[in-house]
Each structure stands twice: as C-alpha cells, then as structure tokens.
Amino acid sequence: MKTNAIFGALGAAILTAACSLVACASDVTVGSGSGALGGLGEAPKSDGTCDTRLDPCSGVCVALSGDTNNCGTCGTKCSAGDTCSSGVCTTPAPTPPPKPLPDAGTGVDAGGCEFGFERCGGQCIDILFDNDNCNGCGIVCGAGKACTRGICM
Questions:
Q1: Structural domain boundaries in the chain
Q2: Residue 38, burial from CB neighbour count under 10 angstroms (0-12, 13-18, 19+)
Q3: Would you say 147 and 128 are in contact if contact means Cβ atoms under 8 Å apart?
Q4: Suppose 68 and one of 8, 78, 91, 102 were both cysteines; which one would form an S-S bond, judging by CB atoms 3.0 to 4.6 Å apart?
C-alpha cells in the first residue's frame, strides 16, 4: 500500500486502519505516492474528482459509505460509538446481560429458580422442554412440534 508524502508513515497507518474498519474495496487507493491525487485521504485530482467509490469532502477524498465523520454526505458525523455502514449511521445492538448463575450452595438463581429453569410469568419453567417457553420465555413451538432440549422439533 503506497502513501502520499503528505501523510508519511503515520498517515499510512491511520488510512490502513480506516480501510480495515470500513472494508475499502480493492479498487480504492490509499495514497499513491506518485504525486497523483484522488486516493483515500488525499486531495482530489485536478478535475475535482476522487478515485472510484470516493468523494471529495473539505478538500480530502473520503469513503462516504463508511466514514463516521462523513457518513452518506460530507460533514454528517455519527454519534460516539456508532458506525457508518452503507452511508448510514447505525448504533450497535446492546449486548444482553448474562443470565444469573445459580448460587453454588443452593442451586437457585437470583430469580428464585433451580438450575435449568427460568422465571416466566412468575413461574419457574423448564425452558428446555416447555412447548410454550422453548429456550426462553414466550417462545412457542408451532402445532405438531415439541420443545426438545430448547429446540422446537
């Protein structure tokens, strides 16, 4: 990967990391180093354009499809923690909290159910074999199917 002399080694590392985050296409140039312009992070070419899949924003060629500072359009910044995917700022789905483990001494979890059971509608349910709560509360197996080890079969 070549870099423009303006950016040097540090710029190359930043641009390389940016491409790995936004999955730059193989035809996106990260600096050419030959004095030619229009690659990712470089000034636009003399005709004001950038290389394929790049657009000029404030004098720099960017990938609007994955740049969190120019997401979809120049100057559209994604919120902290969001990503830019296909030109749209998206918030990653939150990670659900882990289920409480049973107390080693009693075998009862924080919900008051024994190991292997989950509290559904105020009752401790065996979610591995309950057709109305198969592998989780409210997951109902369809007609003619039975919950077997948490899978409707």
A1: 1-93, 96-153
A2: buried
A3: yes
A4: 78
Q: Which residue has the tokens 């979890």?
A: 109
The closest of 75, 84, 29 to 54, measured between CA atoms, is 29
Residue matched to tokens 């641009």: 15
Residues 102/109, Cβ–Cβ less than 8 Å? yes
Cβ atoms of 3 and 9 closer than 8 Å: yes
pTM of the model: 0.42
| Placement of tokens 């354009």 in the chain | 49
| Type of residue at 38 | G
**Residue type at position 84:** C
Residue 70 binned pLDDT confidence (cut-offs 50, 70, 90) = very high
In this prediction, residues 121-139 reach a mean pLDDT of: 87
